[in-house]
Write a structure and sequence with these properties.
single chain; 289 residues; alpha/beta; Rossmann fold; 7-stranded mixed sheet; 11% strand
Length: 289
């Protein structure tokens, strides 16, 4: 129905970037049939930012954050490959990081790069940042939002029923605070991506143990971890969620909200302000005001 009203095929990225027909139609001009979804245009006065998805693989949880960041900042978000429908999900962190780094460099050939990962996306963000630095590029302070380090926290194998229950709980948590209609997405497509990402998350500690200098190995750049001060995730220990075992120095900042609500109004304003304070203006360009 939506495709008939808009008169063209609608990429899933456009659906994930907007929840109204107007937003989706607007996004169609800039959303490629690839992994990188443009959530907001920039004017070149501020450091661009790339947001990396959580375990669900979707980008719609980032829409409030993109809207709350300082004017002039271009914002992209990476959606999981399997959400494109015609391509399988990534099976390894190495392949995911390589594809994401390539997508980032396609829209921004050279650094410094602004990268933010949320939840599972923290592990992916570290891998992407490490890959970019190995290629000789620079990364702005790496922003991690409420996600633990991949340090031996493997979960036992989950059967299909348990995995589906966990998937439904994740979807419910993602959509609980929505103030408007969300796009109707293919549940089986989302579950396929979720299952693949759970496999990557469970495999990351093994990958680091087998290749301590690999993509989830030690990273030398600055890292800031924003932690939710409310909800169950606020009680997790240690304070740096084990990132200090990978990164020599991690700055931990507590922000309002729980693991999910910190990306929604009103708590998202605090997160956006903290991110803006970290990221420098675009090179050589003064920031108005």
């Amino acid at each position: 129905v939506l495709e008939r009203r808009l008169g063209r095929e609608v990429p899933l990225g456009a659906l994930l970037a907007g929840s109204t027909i107007g937003q989706i139609a607007s996004a169609l001009g800039s959303v490629p049939s690839g992994l990188l979804v443009k959530l907001r245009e920039g004017d070149g006065t501020r450091q661009p930012l790339v947001l990396i998805h959580a375990i669900s693989g979707t980008v719609f949880p980032f829409v409030p954050l993109a809207a709350s960041l300082a004017a002039g900042r271009e914002v992209h978000a990476l959606q999981a490959r399997g959400l494109l429908g015609d391509q399988p999900p990534h099976e390894t962190l190495d392949s995911m990081a390589a594809d994401y780094a390539r997508e980032i460099r396609r829209v921004q050939p050279n650094g410094p790069y602004g990268i933010l990962g949320w939840s599972f996306g923290c592990t992916v963000a570290l891998a992407v940042a490490r890959l970019l630095t190995l290629e000789g590029e620079t990364v702005a302070p790496l922003v991690m939002v409420d996600g633990p380090a991949p340090i031996g926290r493997e979960s036992p194998g989950e059967n299909e029923q348990a995995l589906r229950e966990r998937f439904r709980a994740e979807v419910a948590a993602l959509t609980a605070g929505s103030t408007g209609p969300l796009p109707a997405l293919d549940e089986e497509l989302l579950f396929r991506v979720f299952r693949a990402n759970v496999g990557i998350a469970h495999g990351a500690p093994r990958q680091r143990a087998g290749k301590p200098d690999g993509l989830v190995g030690r990273y030398g750049g600055p890292v800031v971890l924003f932690r939710a001060s409310e909800g169950s995730s606020a009680t997790l220990e240690p304070r740096d969620l084990d990132w200090g075992l990978i990164q020599p120095e991690v700055t931990v900042v507590w922000l309002p909200g729980d693991h999910y609500s910190m990306l929604r109004e009103p708590a998202v304003r605090s997160l956006a302000a903290a991110v803006d304070a970290l990221l420098a203006p675009a090179s050589g360009t003064p920031v108005p005001g």
